[in-house]
């Protein structure tokens, strides 16, 4: 089983934010960063250091895979 660390999620969110900065008065995140923000927040609240990739939704899995392939 493949795991993603909280550091990986944070780096991926920052990567996607640099690729597509937040927009509008509300500062909406791009879809990739938004998809990764929920599992990241849950990990913080739960005190988790890693999460299995298979618990991520499809958009979050794609975002993390593209990040890992591009870095």
Distance between the termini: 21 Å
Judged by helices, strands and strand pairing, the structural class is mainly alpha
Number of extended strands = 2
The biggest beta sheet is recorded as: 2 strands, antiparallel
Q: Which radius of gyration do the C-alpha atoms yield?
A: 12 Å
Strand order, main sheet: write it out: 1-2
How would you describe this structure to a colleague?
24% of the residues are buried. The mean pLDDT is 92. This protein has three helices and two strands, in the order βααβα. The two termini are 21 Å apart. The longest helix has 16 residues, at 31-46. It is 61% helix and 8% strand. α1 crosses α3. The protein has 71 residues and is mainly alpha-helical. It has a two-stranded antiparallel sheet.
Summarize the structure.
By secondary structure, this protein is mainly alpha-helical. The chain has helices at 6-19, 31-46, 58-70; strands at residues 3-5, 50-52. The protein has three helices and two strands, in the order E-H-H-E-H.
Q: Key features?
A:
single chain; 71 residues; mainly alpha; two-stranded antiparallel ribbon; 61% helix
Helices and strands in order:
Layout (H helix, E strand, L loop, with lengths): L2 E3 H14 L11 H16 L3 E3 L5 H13 L1
């Amino acid at each position: 089983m493949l795991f993603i660390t909280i550091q990986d999620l944070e780096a991926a969110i920052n990567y996607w934010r640099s690729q597509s900065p937040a927009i509008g008065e509300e500062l909406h995140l791009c879809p990739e960063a938004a998809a990764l923000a929920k599992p990241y927040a849950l990990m913080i609240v739960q005190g988790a250091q890693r999460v299995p990739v298979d618990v991520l939704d499809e958009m979050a899995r794609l975002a993390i895979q593209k990040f890992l392939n591009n870095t």
